[in-house]
Design a protein that fits this description.
Layout: E1 2-11, H1 15-26, E2 31-35, H2 42-45, H3 48-65, H4 82-105, E3 112-114, E4 117-121, E5 124-127, E6 131-140, E7 144-146, E8 159-161, H5 162-165, E9 174-178, H6 182-193, E10 197-201, H7 213-224, E11 228-230, E12 234-241, E13 244-250, E14 256-260, E15 263-266, E16 270-272, E17 306-308, H8 319-335, E18 348-351, E19 356-361, E20 372-378, H9 383-387, E21 394-400, E22 406-413, H10 416-428, H11 433-437, H12 447-464
Parallel strand pairs: 1-2, 1-6, 2-3, 6-17, 8-15, 9-10, 9-15, 10-11
Antiparallel strand pairs: 4-5, 5-6, 7-16, 12-13, 13-14, 18-19, 19-22, 20-21, 21-22
Helix pairs in contact: 1-8, 3-4, 3-6
């Protein structure tokens, strides 16, 4: 059996694992990177990039078909060739994957250990029962895998996950989508806009992880105009009939329906890939889901020499956070026991369905409602949004009622990926409503909708303090 002695061992070569490996090496630590699967990262292979490519194709078709309202029509109807669409998605997906593979190829040959790792002691890993890795410090960066609820397994080979969707050679006519989170909404809407007859079934009423009820309900209503969508599905039967997925369910208005589908897509979230690691051998404390307890300002598990980063820590499942966490974990693994804490970036997530969804800063559920004002802006009559024919949406911004300091925001609407960045930057540097409103806003732009929400919150702050609001520069508010 081969034995390798190193300063740092990183388990997992995804976004966070590669960031940890680079950081540990830059810190002067002799480091190995252990990987059991394919290189290329979840984001590039099956996540962020292929899903956005599919959405781009679907939205292009949708937008072209919507031109008639502007007086633009042609003699030939546009159609989606799903075989060519999927081929395009894979080809472009492989471009992003290859960029990651080139970086891996630049690593030293002896820095890569292939195989499934498990702990045999706090400082010792066994990789496929063939290689023993003894490490002074260890970074766990094993990512997450699609979660498949037991009740969906009845569909057998007719059940796929988001990891498998992009490997299809063509799309069937009818797909049932289970889930109402970011993955389900993006893929479900893309499929619907590519002329696939879909029905989407959520659980418990949650939509895109939004906790602000009016924003959530408007998003659900808007999506329901495009395809069947029930965020709180009541399903009486799930089975295979004549080798086809069969569902009996009640619609939101209580009507009974029975329908067959060609395929079922489980887009019900992802769970940390931790079971195979034998974490009980580490001595570190785990939560009730089997995830190590750690300090998010250091990524250190307790006071141990073990660090964790990326999707497997069960908190911020977004690439930018995975990269930040990996670098932080790698830095601290290299310098252990001189661990350094950092201030984390503001929580920030986007869902790329239409209307887009943004959540920034403090969760609405965590806010002290007695000390918080909510500024609101609708996009139905917002000028630029109407020009683009994307005037469906609602933005809520939250601020401290006494100080006017921004606390967070949730919204759905046009250009939320851009408005979200403006809000995240303002939150990161701890700006107040007055300070943001002194900044320039052009006309006509979607950002004027953000200004309307900020002005509404600012007015409520001054009312809370029984003060007259200051005069703001006059500008067109539509």
């Amino acid at each position: 059996m081969k034995t390798i002695n190193v300063d740092v061992a990183v388990i997992g070569a995804g976004t966070s694992g590669m960031a940890a490996y680079r950081a540990a090496c830059e810190g002067g630590a002799k480091t190995v990177l252990i990987e059991s699967g394919e290189f290329g990262t979840t984001c590039a292979r099956v996540g962020c990039m292929p899903s956005k490519l599919l959405l781009a194709a679907a939205n292009g078709l949708h937008d072209a078909r919507s031109l008639a309202a502007r007086g633009i029509e042609g003699t030939h109807a546009l159609e989606a060739d799903s075989e060519r669409v999927l081929s395009y998605v894979r080809r472009e997906r492989d471009h992003f994957v290859n960029a990651v593979l080139k970086e891996v190829e630049s690593f030293d040959d002896d820095a890569i250990v292939r195989g499934q790792a498990r702990f045999v002691s706090p400082n010792e890993l066994m990789v496929d029962d063939e290689t023993r890795v003894v490490a002074k410090r260890i970074v766990i960066a094993v990512g997450a895998a699609p979660m498949i609820p037991d009740e969906l397994k009845v569909f057998g080979e007719k059940l796929i996950t988001s990891d498998e969707l992009f490997e299809l050679r063509t799309f069937p006519k009818r797909i049932a989508v289970f889930g109402a989170g970011p993955i389900a909404l993006e893929l479900g809407q893309a499929l619907a806009r590519l002329d696939i007859d879909i029905a989407m079934f959520g659980k418990g009423g949650s939509v895109a992880a939004l906790s602000d009820t009016p924003v959530r309900d408007l998003l659900a209503s808007t999506l329901s105009d495009e395809f069947y969508f029930d965020p709180d599905a009541n399903i009486d039967e799930m089975s295979l009939r004549n080798d086809k997925p069969f569902l009996r369910f009640k619609t939101p208005d209580g009507k009974a329906r029975a329908e067959s589908f060609d395929l079922v897509l489980a887009a019900t979230g992802r769970v940390p890939n931790l079971k195979s690691l034998a974490l009980e051998k580490t001595g570190i404390e785990l939560n009730d889901k089997g995830v190590p307890l750690y300090d998010e300002t250091t990524m250190q598990c307790g006071t141990s020499h073990i660090f964790i980063a990326g999707d497997c820590d069960g908190t911020r499942p977004w690439l930018h956070d995975a990269a930040d966490e990996g670098k932080l974990a790698g830095d601290n693994a290299a310098r252990y026991p001189d661990v350094q804490a950092v201030k984390r970036k503001v929580p920030f997530s986007i869902v790329f369905c239409e209307p887009q969804v943004v959540m920034v800063g403090a969760s609405y559920d965590d806010l002290d409602k007695q000390m918080t004002v909510t500024g609101e802006a609708s996009f139905e009559s917002q000028g630029r949004s109407r020009v683009m024919r994307q005037n469906r949406g609602l933005l809520h911004v939250y601020a401290d009622a006494k100080t006017g300091k921004l606390r967070g925001a949730q919204g759905c609407g046009p250009a939320m990926e851009h408005l979200g960045h403006l809000l995240a930057w303002a939150l990161q540097i701890e700006m107040t409503l007055d300070e943001v409103l002194r900044l320039p806003f052009y006309h006509p732009v979607v950002e004027e909708g953000l200004r309307s929400a900020l002005k509404d919150a600012d007015r409520k702050c001054y009312e809370e303090r029984s003060e007259k609001p200051p005069a703001l520069p006059n500008a067109a508010g539509y």
